[in-house]
TrEMBL record:
PANTHER family: CMRF35-LIKE MOLECULE 8, POLYMERIC-IMMUNOGLOBULIN RECEPTOR
Signal sequence interval, chain numbering: 1-18
UniProt keyword annotation of Transferase present: no
Organism: Culter alburnus (Topmouth culter)
Localization per Swiss-Prot or TrEMBL: Membrane
Transmembrane segments: 238-259
Keywords from the UniProt entry: Membrane, Signal, Transmembrane, Transmembrane helix
InterPro entries: CD300_family_receptors, Ig-like_dom_sf, Ig-like_fold, Ig_sub
Highest taxon, organism lineage: Eukaryota
Gene Ontology MF annotations: transmembrane signaling receptor activity
Annotated ranges, domain Immunoglobulin: 24-121, 131-216
Primary location recorded for the protein, binned into one broad class: membrane
Protein name from the UniProt record: Immunoglobulin domain-containing protein
């Protein structure tokens, strides 16, 4: 194969699929930061295999990440929303600039793809936003501020759709107001509808910064708030019901502890009295033993007392007989 054929093949392979997959052309991000890049595809590829490649030329690129985790890269993740025909690539802690390719695998032909250049800068990027995800409610509004370094012709666009180039316009039924100065562009979308949910971008001549807007259904917000209030009320009711039970349990514990303490004190008092009586008897016996020569002296004293009791009636009888004579 000569050089001309190879060049034509490269051009054909790079152009093939450009209409089926759409993404940003160039995006700027500060070193060490994170960024999310959406890749839109046709509805017919909703259940096809999606992946990300890296390389200056498409057919020489290397697959680095896929939705089904066939290829792993710890700083890159992919999520697919088949209901909206978009898969997103998230880069974390970016370090180097590189060319990447969003791709959809076609088993019987050339894979569909679209390329973007990730420009990593040491300072602030030339086009950036504070948040890539914002939300609002139906009939409400959202505001997005895009910062730049004095670029001209900064626009607000619906992803893969038309742009608002003046101060006022509409996108999918929502009114758009744009205020610009030399450093930033502030976009306010009012009268939001459910169909306004999706990807938008701030755009200059050569760069884009994607922003995802989520429009919540008003009834869903009311329901969520009602559920939160109901849950709070249930918690308060549960506290009111449980508080008397807890207090009653504490009262029972206090009464039980008081009775146990009273019983313990009573037993200690009785034990103390018995100990004092026992000590008194012991001391009395000890003194008696010392006075009469111990146990033998005490026994002699008892014998003498018994003899005295026995002789007293006899003496009284002898005295009566003498008086009679």
């Amino acid at each position: 194969m000569d050089l001309d054929c190879l060049l034509l093949l490269c051009i054909f392979m790079n152009l093939s699929g450009a209409q089926d997959v759409t993404t940003v052309r160039k995006i700027s991000v500060q070193k060490g930061q994170s960024v999310i890049i959406p890749c839109l595809y046709e509805q017919k590829y909703a259940f096809s295999y999606k992946y990300l490649s890296a390389g200056d030329i498409w057919f020489l690129s290397n697959d680095i990440k896929s939705f089904d985790q066939r290829y792993h890269h710890k700083k890159v993740s992919i999520s697919d929303d088949s209901s909206r025909n978009v898969f997103t690539v998230r880069f974390d802690d970016v370090q180097e600039s590189a060319q990447y390719w969003c791709a959809v695998h076609i088993p019987s032909g050339f894979d569909k793809h679209a390329g973007f250049f990730l420009d990593v800068t040491a300072g602030l990027p030339s086009l950036y936003v504070n948040r890539q995800n914002v939300s609002g409610s139906e009939n409400g509004s959202v505001t997005v501020t895009c910062y730049h370094h004095g670029q001209r012709d900064v626009k607000w666009c619906k992803f893969a759709d038309r742009c608002v180039t003046g101060m006022f316009g509409t996108l999918d039924g929502a009114s758009v107001e744009i205020r610009s100065d030399q450093k930033h562009m502030t976009v306010t979308m009012r009268g939001l509808k459910k169909e306004n949910t999706g990807w938008y971008w701030c755009s200059t001549n050569d760069q884009q910064m994607p922003v995802h807007i989520t429009v919540h259904h008003t009834q869903a917000l009311v329901t969520a708030e009602t559920d939160r209030i109901t849950l709070t009320a249930r918690k308060r009711t549960a506290i009111f019901f449980l508080l008397p039970v807890v207090l009653e349990i504490l009262l029972i514990i206090i009464i039980y502890s008081a009775l146990k303490l009273l019983t313990f004190c009573k037993e200690r008092c009785l034990t103390s009295v018995n100990e004092e009586e026992s000590q008194y008897i012991t001391m009395h016996r000890s003194r008696s033993s010392r006075s009469y020569g111990g146990a033998s002296g005490e026994g002699a004293y008892e014998i003498m007392a018994e003899l005295k009791r026995n002789t007293e009636p006899q003496r009284e009888s002898d005295y009566v007989n003498i008086r009679q004579t």
